[in-house]
Amino acid sequence: MTSPPTGPSASETAAVGVHGITKRFGPVQALSGITLDFPRGQVTALMGENGAGKSTLLKILTGDHRPTEGHVTLNGQPVQLGSPAAARAAGIRIIPQEPEIFPHLSVAENVYAGALPRTRGRRLDRKELRRRIEADLVRFGFAEVLDPDTLGSRLTPAQRQLVEVLRALTGERPPELIAFDEPTSSLSEHEVAALFALVRRLREQDVALVYVSHRMAEIFQLADRIAVLRDGALAGVQRADETDERALVRMMVGRDLSTLFVRDRQEPGRPVLEVENLTTDAVRDVSLRVRAGEVVGLAGLVGAGRSELALALAGDLPVRGGTVTLDGVRLRGGRPGEAIRAGLGLAPEERKAQALFLQQSVRDNASLVVLDRLRRFRFVRRSAERELTRRYTDRLRVRTPSLAQEVGKLSGGNQQKVVLARWLAHRPKVLILDEPTRGIDVGAKAEIYRIIADLAEEGVALLVISSELPELLGLADRVLVMQGGRITGELDHAEATEESILALAMTEDLTTTAPGAGTAS
Amino acid sequence: MTLIKPPSPATDDTTPALRPPKERSTPRSLLAGIGGQNLSLVGALVLVLALFGLLNDNYLTLPNLQVIAEAATITGLLALVQTVVIICGGLDISVGSQVGVASVVSAMAFTASGANALLGMVAALAVGVLVGVLNGLVIVYGRVNPTIATLAGLAAYKGLAQLLSDGRAQGYVLNDDVFVFLGRGKIAGLPVMVWILVVVAVAVHLLLKYTDIGRNIYAIGGNDTAARLAGININKYLVFVYALIGVVATVAGILLTARTGSGQPTSGSEGLELKAITAAALGGCALKGGKGGIGGTLLAVALLGALENGLTVEGINTFWQNVAQGALLVGAVVIQQRRTGGRAVGLPH
């Protein structure tokens, strides 16, 4: 840990920058040779598709990851950020996407956690704590929206974020750089406006700001400069007033939208998945139907309940009401085994956490669901297993040295293909794919689109959840849009555009108030 | 490995963006098949045998090796099932107490039934299954962490054995042919006890490596969320595994009775959980689950047995042996954690 020199704070010099940053995780190259400055008093937006390297770059800034090559600079001087504490001491702060709040501590204790004031006897100095929180709340203009005594568990999403912002603003050393990681994903509209006002005020105070977001409109409202990452490399930096949405998208994907995957649509067959008024803790009154050979897209913002719907259909989340019928068989729900036997497959959102056995072989991972078909007297027939898994890994073009390779050593795209191989081997009637191309490279993405199209042609009913709208538009026959646990609209292929989907995904923010949200303003 | 530059639009669909990982050379993959861990265990075993063989002429004689094997049998049985439960992400530290219960019940039922060995064993098995299922149910449905649940079991089942036996050795079984055969008999020159260990080891190995049950056990320990989403009934498996421990611990308890001639509530079974867990950890079981195998565990059992016998033969104080055993367990886990390369922050997972 090098202590940074305290240079003159000239707005012209970049407060923080990265120089030649490369980061590898095993065989995967997450970042390659990124050089980028974050000048004082400017909002630098960081954009890029999922998996482009935005969060890795943030984690290097915050000391969570160490770069394989290159370094972070502070006032032009290279510094080693060995830990989050070192980065914090250097004045680099991040507002994480999911605020980390201690549920049993008060707002005041949450804000200063780790550096609580104490008396000489090492006891918590409650008076000093109170004095500090009240002063800081007033100083940063949060006195109206945050009560220092509220417990963490009772805060709304927006308030939780404000606590993180306060953490970033306070501390021995004033912040040099504050990074916001998709801060608006859980905020309602007027909360977003308050956040923007805050970002602008920080800009006036000459703090360097980094703003990660997928939302074009926000970026153009806030950002001074826009840096685009693509496949771990810097695709370019533009002044916000010199570029437009279309140009940015082209930079992000490396090509025009029109060249994205488009599949041949066919007349779908009989309804295979029928859901009536399904209600769970996170999903309200959802009815939908997917027919054989049809690809139905499920769009919505993070937290809209899409993944929860998928998990409920797969029998992993308890169902409170409504019915799920799979090819005429009514599912009782609550048992993944039951849904699988009825012919359902789910490739979940978090493939490493929810689908893969990283220490185990490609073969073991691919054959898991169909072991009962491969066994004789409970003994797995090895040759049959090898043959079956080879058939599907070949078909999906999984690039692996052998079937015995540990799945954890494959690239993200190949890992996803192993998950798909598992479900293809099952020959499902319904396949639910939750963010099937998240974090995988462009080439593998195209292959996965091809697989989805082939499966539809073979008569599988597909429900595809994706946050990447161009992907949904290219794949889906129809797009269902969810918001706040409900389906707020359905668009057929002809009607669906990014704008029409986003309108359905966001507009009702004003009318429906999610529980707990919307009290902070 | 490096990322190839993003493909140009024209070739998007076909160009692989990532090269496949390098092929491993055959000798290396062969080595990986045997397992580096097992090789170092074999090395350590040879070292221990050679060391004590040099120090003491009687150490490497056939009778002494047989003593080592017999003494290691009961530990070995428990280490085998400990391996299974660790692979599926659990732990059982009540195994020693379960052996005590089985030993007492088998001897007392034997006596009460008028010297019917079969009845004694069946009664012990019934109790063993019940105890194992109870452990499983407490863990799964009581949502009690396996370590805590079986720590409670360690105390409670020991107490149960002491209550049943009034804290004393019970019955005398060495007038019965079956018990004598189990404890002292030989088949083809090998003690029956060792045969039993071999049979159980082969059975557990087949279960783990060649059946869908075994695959699912590895899956549950490797990633329980993914296992659940793949349709595996995790609860059923956990209860099954703890019941299996109950059965095998009972076999160990019956052998203890046959060995000592009477039902022992604590003598001979206390501390077995430590040995069993140490053997499993030394044998390469990842304590977070999903990894491990019978081969490594058996080698570790042999190593522990050879070490214990050697230290005893050399007249080293048993207090020191306890220290050595504790050090071995910690050492094995430290090495394991180093290999996984996790960061040293906060409590280990």
From TrEMBL, chain B:
The keyword Transmembrane helix applies. Signal peptide: none annotated. GO terms for molecular function: transmembrane transporter activity. Residues 1-27 are annotated as: Disordered. The keyword Transmembrane applies. InterPro entries: ABC_transp_permease. Keywords: Cell membrane, Membrane, Transmembrane, Transmembrane helix. It is found in: Cell membrane. Pfam families: BPD_transp_2 (PF02653). It is a multi-pass membrane protein. Coiled coil: none annotated. The chain crosses the membrane at residues 30-55, 67-87, 118-141, 187-208, 237-258. One of its GO terms (cellular component) is plasma membrane. Its main location: membrane. This is L-arabinose ABC transporter permease.
